[in-house]
UniProtKB/TrEMBL annotation:
Short name of one Pfam family: Glyco_trans_1_4
GO biological process: lipopolysaccharide biosynthetic process
SUPFAM superfamilies: UDP-Glycosyltransferase/glycogen phosphorylase
Keywords: Transferase
Molecular-function annotations in GO: glycosyltransferase activity
Residues passing through the membrane, by range: none
Name this polypeptide is given: Group 1 glycosyl transferase
Length: 411
């Protein structure tokens, strides 16, 4: 007899994907518990602080999960982060310490919930994201639970690409370092313990297979995104001609690092220096720029999640020339605001070439410049792309159906 697993426990470090997996499961009545590092409901004392303080932490809540069973370690997280600063831990040392801290707290909680979980009439499905799942999977396997790994990026194959990009551009100084070897050893162990591995794009699936993860274990499920209500009524307009008074506004939103195609973007900016175009660079800067930045580049810096809305509304096109991304949620956010996208082939499949944007044949300054010149010379085409934007196939209901259709979900 086929029986669907209707009980899920989700362990999530961070606000990844706006909590889309636990939200979709909760909507279907299948989320038993969400275990996360921080949760700040509206009545939290933290929301009484002046607005700039702990802005990102205070966004760690979602109304869709207000009625759900959510366990978090918010106070412990604040203490952990303070200790990390005092100890001056950074980079991989800090990332690995945070992953270990989260798993230790989650396992301690699971032991407390042991009696309650034992009363379930079926084995729950246990979901956790990569790099913070190994200890949790050992616990889940000992209980006889099904284990699902959410792979957040294309793994060690991506690291190899980034290493090569840094070698090609030594003048762009950064603090980037490859992960220590034991980081990847533990990841391979996570993959071995996982019954299924969820990736968000064909690109990620191919990258995992390149390092020995069997294809039969991998399932491709795109990200889900629920547009904000005000996005549905938003109307995007373009001038008949771009000019110095009304230039083409190109939005780059994300980490300002080489993996995101920064070297090619900056080369394109130089090639287009005499054109009515400006680049809005929104995100934390992870590389130093050797040449002086010309006036076309506006370095805005890091902003909170909620503050990105203004840039989606006011820019004309999103530039996403990534060398490698597991998906690129910013693509769905841009589409929700009816914004055309110029993207690479190395991420989630959101853009249909010449329908709702442009797909770069390669990540190079020349290719980006050519795509932007097309936009400059054809504002009417941008308007057509904007009318073709669509996020309907990336909704929570579709995500929930995809999760239930996975082979592990039946016995």
């Amino acid at each position: 007899m086929i029986q669907k697993f209707s009980s899920w426990i989700c362990c999530q470090l961070g606000a990844r994907e706006h909590y889309s997996i636990p939200r979709s499961l909760n909507k279907a009545g299948q989320l038993t518990h969400l275990i996360t590092d921080a949760w700040v409901p509206p009545d939290s004392m933290l929301n009484g602080l002046p607005k700039p303080l702990l802005a990102n932490l205070r966004e760690r809540f979602h109304t869709d999960l207000a009625p759900a069973s959510v366990y978090a370690f918010t106070s412990s997280l604040i203490g952990f982060e303070i200790a990390q600063r005092i100890q001056k831990k950074t980079g991989w040392e800090q990332i690995i310490a945070r992953n270990d801290w989260f798993q230790k707290n989650a396992i301690r909680l699971l032991y407390k919930l042991d009696t309650q979980l034992f009363t379930l009439n079926y084995r729950p499905t246990f979901f956790a994201y990569s790099y913070a799942a190994l200890k949790l999977f050992h616990y889940a396997k000992a209980k006889g639970w099904r284990t699902i790994l959410g792979q957040i990026d294309p793994g060690p194959f991506e690291e190899k690409l980034v290493m090569e990009e840094h070698a090609r551009h030594p003048t762009y100084q950064s603090n980037w370092q490859p992960a220590p070897s034991h980081y990847w050893t533990k990841w391979h162990q996570e993959c071995s313990l996982a019954d299924r591995i969820i990736v968000n794009s064909l690109w990620s699936s191919e990258a995992l297979q390149q390092v020995g993860i069997p294809e039969h274990k991998i399932d491709i499920i795109p990200l889900a995104y629920q547009p904000p209500q005000q996005a549905y009524d938003f109307v995007r307009t373009y001038p008949s001609v771009f000019s110095d008074e009304r230039p083409l506004r190109v939005l780059f939103l994300g980490q300002v690092i080489l993996r995101k195609g920064l070297a090619a973007l900056l080369e394109a900016a130089e090639l287009l220096n005499d054109q009515p175009i400006e680049f809005w660079m929104v995100g934390s800067k992870g590389i130093s720029i050797p040449q002086p930045s010309h006036g076309k580049l506006q370095w805005i810096g890091s902003v909170s999640r909620s503050a990105t809305v203004m840039y989606y509304q006011q820019a004309d096109v999103l530039l996403f020339p990534t060398l490698s991304d597991g998906f690129g949620l910013t693509q769905l956010e841009a589409q929700a605001w009816k914004m055309p996208i110029i993207t690479s082939k190395f991420c989630g499949e959101v853009v249909k070439d010449q329908v709702n944007g442009l797909i770069l044949p390669q990540v190079s300054g020349q290719a980006i410049a050519q795509a932007l010149k097309f936009c400059l010379n054809n504002p009417w085409q941008l308007e057509a792309f904007a009318k073709n934007t669509d996020t309907s196939s990336f909704n929570l209901s579709q995500l929930q159906q995809s999760l239930q259709a996975l082979p592990y979900a039946v016995i």
